[in-house]
Design brief:
Blueprint (H helix, E strand, L loop, with lengths): L4 E6 L9 H13 L4 E9 L4 E5 L2 E7 L2 E3 L2 E3 L1 H11 L4 E6 L2 H7 L7 E6 L8 H16 L2 E4 L2 H6 L1 H4 L5 E3 L20 H4 L3 E6 L8 H7 L7 E6 L5 H10 L6 E5 L3 H10 E5 L11 H8 L4 E4 L6 H4 L6 E4 L4 H13 L1 H18 L2 H17 L1
Parallel strand pairs: 1-2, 1-7, 2-4, 7-8, 8-9, 9-10, 11-12, 11-14, 12-13, 14-15, 15-16
Antiparallel strand pairs: 3-4, 5-6
Helix pairs in contact: 1-15, 2-3, 3-4, 8-13, 11-14, 13-14
Length: 376
Amino acid sequence: MNVPLRILHLAKYYPPEQGGMESVTQILAEGVSNSEYAVEVLCFTKSKAGVESVANVTVTRLPVALESSSQPLGWAYFWQGLRKAREVDIVHLHAPNLLASLQSILLPSRTRLLVHWHSDIVGKGLLGRLVRPLERWMLARADVVIATSAAYAAASPQLRTTAAKTTVVPIGIPVPQGDFSSGAGRNFKDFLRGRRLILALGRLVPYKGFSTLIAAAKDLPEQCAIIIGGSGPLDAELRAQISAANLNDRVLMAGRLSEDEVALLFSQAYCFCLASVERSEAFGVVLLEAMARGVPCVATTIEGSGTAWVNEHQCSGLNVRPGDPAALSQAFHLLIDDPTLQQRLSEGARSRFNAIFSADKFVTSIRGIYARLRIG
């Protein structure tokens, strides 16, 4: 009888806490969890700590003692990670993660280390400079490094030093589900009033570029409306920007959305917008949610990011310069004025998703890497 391969994911957070890294960790943990693999996740939580089994994955959630520049910290996480690493075959580390980087250089020599590089640490000042040496040691210790796109791997100063052990595995997600026929949650009809919906989702932080999207709304035709879903520290500032520009009838800050509300809005969306302005947006997992549903995307050509590769220009959507409201507005006008273009990009979005970004392809690629590590 074969002994299951023991996998430990070191993650910052895990669903139901929301985020791209969180959803990727869940897809991989649940995707490989079967008789061949015993999978565990160690993560922080902002709610109730504890241990539970979710979809045959053991999830240990530990409290955050301190959070600095989006990096959660806590001694319980650090010590439990080291203890659990002695019991597993492979540590699958999701970076950036300050404490996991420190843990990585203290792992037992027999433990294989896979570093899943979601993003460089961008614009974090002193913290970024302190973490950089840790990340270099972590990458030197790693047996395999995964980059989410060739564009990001080529542009990342850290990944360029470890090219020989870096492999590109694009993120994939399941085809999104959601029951919006039940009438649960808000329906947004009073705001939309039959207008074409430009949808944007994400944490309300500077690098997401929501202020640029709001500025672009001033030049949109009357038959369009924008809904921004998400929560975060810029909520009050963005609402003030909308009010100051007299755009309350054009742009709705919807706050945190339920899965059914997200599904409803995607079903009504004419296009999806990812207006991010920094390389902190390394991939844009939310683009895949739109593409899987056949919703054309308008994204930005952030230098050194994978977003413009994920959303192929004139295939699954349109790409414009970051931080440029006029360029965003022009892209929206192209789609609104040309329904044939919108339909062609809708079909292209779904086809590109199925060809490259399915969860099955993603999980199969990671299984192959686990198998090579086991043999090695």
